[in-house]
Write a sequence for this structure.
């Protein structure tokens, strides 16, 4: 039997039980680019090479997350209500009844702390 686990409180949810899926997309926001004549005639080669060098030294996953990150959560009804009330202040310990919350496990389920060197 397939069982889901609430990403808020850790409660097990049977396959056909009521559950909610929350998708959060975080995208870098850019203003409209204004290009002047000076921008068109400037030699951008050194700027691009410097940027490439900085990117070589950075962690690829961190660079990617600076532009786009999608997080998907499965929530039980209790955690869904807590999330709806305060989506920016939602914490796993807010939802569900009983049972200890393993915050480390919750963060790992979202992909945090899984750095591979």
């Amino acid at each position: 039997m397939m069982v889901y686990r609430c990403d808020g409180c850790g409660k097990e949810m049977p396959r056909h039980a009521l559950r909610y899926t929350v998708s959060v997309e975080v995208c870098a926001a850019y203003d409209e680019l204004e290009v002047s004549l000076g921008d068109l005639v400037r030699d951008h080669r050194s700027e691009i090479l410097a940027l490439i060098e900085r990117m070589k030294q950075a962690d690829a996953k961190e660079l990617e997350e600076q532009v786009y990150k999608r997080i998907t959560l499965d929530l039980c009804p209790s955690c869904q209500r807590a999330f709806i009330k305060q989506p920016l202040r939602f914490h796993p310990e807010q939802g569900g009844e009983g049972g200890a919350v393993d915050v480390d496990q919750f963060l790992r389920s979202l992909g945090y702390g899984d750095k591979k060197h």
Summary: The two ends are 36 Å apart (CA to CA). The beta strands are 3-5, 12-14, 20-27, 68-75. The CA atoms of residues 61 and 116 lie 10 Å apart. The longest strand covers residues 20-27.
